[in-house]
Amino acid sequence: LSIRRQRQMCIRDREQIDSITSSLKDSGMNIKITGEGDKLVYTYTYETDTTDIEGLAEMLESGMEDQTSVFEGVAASVKLAVDVESPVVVVRYLDSEGNEIYSREFTAAQ
């Protein structure tokens, strides 16, 4: 891709990240987005204690089913934006102590 196209995608992605971060501000959760090798990792952390971890994990799993196409689309856009053959999007949910509640990986839709 041209440098201009990559820059436009980075600006758009930054705006989306800022929007997500802002929307979570009052929800008792924060988000950190990082790159780890060929993975783009969204880590959501609950800021307060969560009591029913098993119930929460089931709810998150169900919610992720509804978001599959969204995160597959993110993986596809990563593939276009950077030189990664098979990018993976990871969505992690952690409790306030950093313990994983739920995690799922997504690849670009074929």
Written description of the protein model:
With 110 residues, this protein is of the alpha+beta class. It is built from 2 helices and 4 strands. Helices cover 46% and strands 28% of the residues. The two termini are 20 Å apart. The protein has helices at 3-24, 53-81, and strands at residues 29-36, 39-46, 88-94, 100-107.
**Whole-number mean pLDDT:** 80
- In total, how many beta strands? 4
The helix-and-strand class reads: alpha+beta
Shape: globular
Segments where pLDDT lies below 50 for 5+ residues?
A: none
Roughly what percent helix? 40-55%
Order of helices and strands, N to C?
HEEHEE
Summarize it.
With 110 residues, the protein is an alpha+beta fold. It has helices at 3-24, 53-81; strands at 29-36, 39-46, 88-94, 100-107.
Descriptive labels:
110 residues; alpha+beta; four-stranded mixed beta sheet; 2 helices; 46% helix
Write the layout of secondary structure elements.
Layout: H1 3-24, E1 29-36, E2 39-46, H2 53-81, E3 88-94, E4 100-107
Parallel strand pairs: 2-3
Antiparallel strand pairs: 1-2, 3-4
